Amino acid sequence: MNMILELLNWIAALGPMVMMPIIMFIIGVCFRLPLGKLIRACITTGVGFAGVTITINFFISSVGPAIGQMVAAWGLRTDIMDVGWPARAAATWSFPMAAIVVLCIIAVNIIMLSLKRTRCVMVDFWSYNHFIFSAALIWYATNSTVLAIAGAIVTAIVTFKLADWTAPLAESFFGLPGVSFPTANSVNWAPIAYVMEKIYDKIPGFKNIKADPQNIQEHFGVLGEPVIMGLFFGLIIGVMGHQDVGSTLTVGMSTAAAMVLTPKMMQILMEGLMPFADGVKDMLNKKYSGGNFTIGIDAALTVANPAAISVGIMMVPTTLILATVLPGNRLLPLPDIAYQAMWLAAWPAAFSKGNILRAYITTIFITVIMLLIATDMADIHTKLALAGGFTLPKGISVISTEDAGTHLLSWIIWKICSII
Length: 420
Hints:
Helix content: over 70%
Low-confidence stretches: none
Number of strands: 5
Order of helices and strands: HHHEHHEHHEHHHHHEHHHHEHH
Distance between the termini: 30 Å
Oligomer: single chain
Strand content: under 5%
Structural class: mainly alpha
Radius of gyration: 21 Å
């Protein structure tokens, strides 16, 4: 079992640029896809992931200093330290039962596919850590192996079903046919975004406001184009972060670059992914007629949408303000704030059909919940991190992460199991 866990950790540590091509190649060989076509698809997908990662990281590295200055200028302080999603993920993969959980979830996915209870073929190996996270939370709270495995399985089943439900939206809004997003810390928020849209549709006047990028561009001309909006939002972040003129302009141009380059990198990724996805689906449909299967991949790809990026950028200063004024919150989200803001904005943007105003309000609501969950998870998160080998910084006794707060379903199941 240790050998399996070491292999899983090694593959996961490679990152999506290398991990996804390896997994795609193994699956493609098992499904007897043409070798030349398969190799090209795998490499192109890896290049696409690299492009998306480089673009987003470039944006975050440019915005990071402005955010740090903003925190210092505003005098923001909280008693729970945000150590970033890598620390949470590393602690999760170090969980002793990680390999068992992965094997159980693979079995669950195969059974659900064969019984036609899901259309999602979960190939995003990295995101299995979300199911392990559920198991780890429950185990450290209850010391029950049965409850831990059961919690992980429930998380996976619900996530696969939500991925099925949102797959048509992934195609129509994000332009990703044949793809679904069984990423628990993203798709678990989709029902909230859906319900919020139903509420907005009942509000007189407000329901008629059109604020999608296309409508904004029609009304404001060149000022409404994504590249100009990115520049504008970036400049605001630079000014709020008390940056000098040169640094402010750099933040503005970096944000504009992210708005333009991320969707283009996504096109490269899809150029590789689609032949692979179509080949796997064709083989599955021959065996299970009418299955209409989708390939489950990382929901990070949703940030390539202009509306999602716009709302995400707006949420950077908004999240800091919320962290300061929200009663009950003790976490100051810094390491992943730019990335997570776009991540949480994806489904609100999708269900609102790109209406930036609606998506922004919904993302604020979701972020409030996320901050409170991250605060509530602090003690158990600290225990998990310490067990995984994390060393607490001097003067810090409790840690958590913004990323942990995005695991809505894991939090719900953990609380239920704790009561049981």
